[in-house]
């Protein structure tokens, strides 16, 4: 599920183009026109804490437009489910493109942890050992961490599952040692900053990566790293899908080429010749 900040940003981007249109205008040609409109460079000005203004040109690429149009699709789906629309409306999304095969080595993760703030360090450790998304980790409260049963329940009781899967995971002994130590700190959530919940770790992870001198790091790369390590270390397809709460199709498509079992049976058959 997208964070509140991401939803707000997407709605802000959608409104100027779609705000004056009706639902019957949602079709392939209009969606492609929106993509072209968002691709146009625009100038934005930001003001730092010391009052310094910075001006830069930005444009939205296909991944950003996909995310924004996905929010539009979700709104239309909700309207149809509530009976506000008689027929479902399909939003045409840009092609997703290839997923970047960027994952961190163990040395890079060690460097990242060394240069991270304490709450970011907690987030990184949880991400590496569980392979969960940033929002899922930041929502984790202590009452869903059972150190006696060695179990973390990322989804609250009664919470419906979404396509951004959460599920539950058994706690590896290395993570358990961290959790025991962290549990002595007062607070409702596992990851907190100065007694407050954390809404986003995007900037914190970026700052740690910059200080460590590591390029291509964001909060999503940590999930990618966790699954890649698991597969490289010999997890079977079914085990990886269950532990990381990710479909076998995704594991096979994006991670399985890292596995020592990749094409193993095929090679054995060929070698019999």
Overview of the structural elements:
Helices cover 48% and strands 9% of the residues. The chain is mainly alpha-helical and 273 residues long. It has two domains: 4-81, no CATH class; 106-258, Intergrase catalytic core (hpI Integrase, Chain A, Orthogonal Bundle). A hairpin with a 4-residue loop joins β3 and β4 (151-153). The longest helix is centred in the first third of the chain and has 20 residues, at 62-81. The protein starts with a helix and ends with a helix.
Detail the topology: elements first, then pairings.
Layout: H1 4-18, H2 28-39, E1 42-47, E2 53-58, H3 62-81, H4 106-114, H5 118-130, H6 134-138, E3 145-146, E4 151-153, E5 168-170, H7 173-182, E6 192-193, E7 196-197, H8 202-212, H9 219-232, H10 237-243, H11 248-254, H12 264-271
Antiparallel strand pairs: 1-2, 3-4, 4-5, 6-7
Helix pairs in contact: 1-3, 4-5, 4-8, 5-9, 10-11
In order across it, which strands form the biggest sheet? 3-4-5
Through-space gap between termini: 50 Å
| Chain-averaged pLDDT | 89
Uncertain runs are none
Number of helices: 12
């Amino acid at each position: 599920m997208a964070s509140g900040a991401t939803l707000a940003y997407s709605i802000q981007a959608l409104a100027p183009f779609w705000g004056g249109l009706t639902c019957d205008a949602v079709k392939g040609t209009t969606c492609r026109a929106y993509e072209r409109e968002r691709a146009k460079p625009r100038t934005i000005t930001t003001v730092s804490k010391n009052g310094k203004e910075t001006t830069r040109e930005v444009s939205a690429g296909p991944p950003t437009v996909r995310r924004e149009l996905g929010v539009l699709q979700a709104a239309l789906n909700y309207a149809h489910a509530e009976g506000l629309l008689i027929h479902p409306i399909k939003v045409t999304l840009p092609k997703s493109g290839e997923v970047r095969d960027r994952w961190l080595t163990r040395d890079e993760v060690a460097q990242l942890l060394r240069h991270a703030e304490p709450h970011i360090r907690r987030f990184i450790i949880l991400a590496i050992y569980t392979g969960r998304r940033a929002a899922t980790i930041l929502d984790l409260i202590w009452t869903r961490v059972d150190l006696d049963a060695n179990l973390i329940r990322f989804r609250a009781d009664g919470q419906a599952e979404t396509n951004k899967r959460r599920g539950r995971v058994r706690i590896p002994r290395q993570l358990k040692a961290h959790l025991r130590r962290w549990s002595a700190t007062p607070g409702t959530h596992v990851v907190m900053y100065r007694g407050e919940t954390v809404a986003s770790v995007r900037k914190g992870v970026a700052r740690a990566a910059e200080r460590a001198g590591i390029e291509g790091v964001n909060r999503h790369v940590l999930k990618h790293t966790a699954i890649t390590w698991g597969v490289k270390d010999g997890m079977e397809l079914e085990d990886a899908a269950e532990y990381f709460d990710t479909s076998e199709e995704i594991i096979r498509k994006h991670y399985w080429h890292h596995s020592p079992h990749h094409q193993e049976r095929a090679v054995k058959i060929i070698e019999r010749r």
